[in-house]
Target: DEN5A protein
Amino acid sequence: SAPGRFADYFVICGLDTETGLEPDELSGENFEQTPLRRTFKSKVLARYPENVEWNPFDQDAVGMLCMPKGLAFKTQADSREPQFHSFIITREDGSRTFGFSLTFFEEVTSKQICSAMQTLYHMHNAEYDILHTPPTNDRDSCSSTGDCNGTSVSKLQRFNSYDISRDTLYVSKCICLITPMSFMKACKKVLEQLHQAVTSPQPPPLPLESYIYNILYEVPLPPAGRSLKFSGVYGPIICQRPSTSELPLFDFPVKEVFELLGVENVVQLFTCALLEFQILLYSQ
Model:
């Protein structure tokens, strides 16, 4: 039986520099997109511990759910705010395990990856020119209007893309907690504080490994009907587990549902649920 830990795994997903840039087959063919808009395959780079007997690690499921859109690349001109999301893995026996992921962007230091991205852009630009080169009869009119490929704007600038000599390349990376219960707010704070420690110019009071070890091995699940307070990197973190006489744990802000769907749609959904209609939610 499970020993009742707060978290079972700490997982890191991102770019595997050894395998390089692999198209993400789950996202479908997107070669018509500019390389910075394509999605590439992410990998589970590390997990701690390696395995726990009461919760076997499903590498394919965790890797896909941690970064459902695959790897994303950006430059210094793009917004790179961290994004948080949660997921559930349901096993064949109906048991569930919960995942909480914080995705952020870090600078690509591999020269091979930067060169590969530059090569993809050169290939994309060459294909674009072949597809959009006007017939011979139209070239005179192009030269008079200045609207064709022979403008002062470079090919790389035309696609708002990546120039290895000018731009800094960033790639998405994910840190994740796999837990037996859905303590969303607490997990989000843990991950945000870990990310803050990594990006802060000042090191945290203790090595990062100490905080991860504490979460995995020293913080227990709170008993039913009790609260638990433990130390994060920069401050205390509190979670509460409902008693058997209370509603089940649902640690997600209802406010977000109204922000995403709007009041009228939420009322309509609630009405459909009461009338036992079938409800389908579609999301990207």
